[in-house]
Description:
The protein is mostly helical. Strands 2-1-3 form a 3-stranded antiparallel β-sheet. It has 10 helices and 3 strands, in the order ααααααββαβααα. Strand 1 and strand 2 form a beta hairpin.
Amino acid sequence: EKFRGKMSAGRKIFLNSAFRAAAHVNSSTIPKELAKTSAAFLSSAPAGGKHTLPDLAYDYNALEPIISAETMEIHHSKHHNTYVTNLNVGLEKLDAAVSNGDMSSIIGLQGALKFNGGGHLNHTLFWENLAPSNGNKLLDGPLKGLINSCFGDFESMKKQMSADTIAVQGSGWGWLGFNTKTGRIEVATCPNQDPLEATTGLVPLFGVDVWEHAYYVDYRNVRPDYVSAIWDLINWDTVEMRLSKAMKD
Length: 249
């Protein structure tokens, strides 16, 4: 059985909200950059007007013993779902604030929208990064070739990303990203739920969540063991496809 996110019926749809945000620029009520940011947030809502918890491509117990069913259920149905719920609440409030030209409320909502929007985006990417451990291997191809070119070899990349990810202070993410300007793959970290591309300009290829809720049930506070183990779950086919798309874009 797949685990599905539910959408509440009868909720407000953010139809044309982005256009309303842009229209308020002309009234000089909202500064242009703030209106642009608000329009981007509002236009990010999918068809139907609400972000939803994504289905997983595998059961909660499929990643055991590396990640337990208990951790997966809590992480997906509780933590990720909370980001989705709070993002939708924030977008409703932003929609009303933009419509009313309420600049104070718009400014006050930016932090929560970034946090919850980033949480939803990061976790959606994270679930797609993972696959049951059945000999997941990085095969010869463009991704492996670029890793070798940028890091020397796969093990050197793995060592650098693991070390940087383990060293994240507090909560955050470790990422492997593609730099569209240089054509190179880079390792980066982001605090909290800050999205990689919006923060660094790197296109995310895969990320490792090092918030404690991602591993505490299984590894307690021993983050290095979790980071070491999760490499066996990386879905390299997905990473390869992300690289291909990023290089074409």
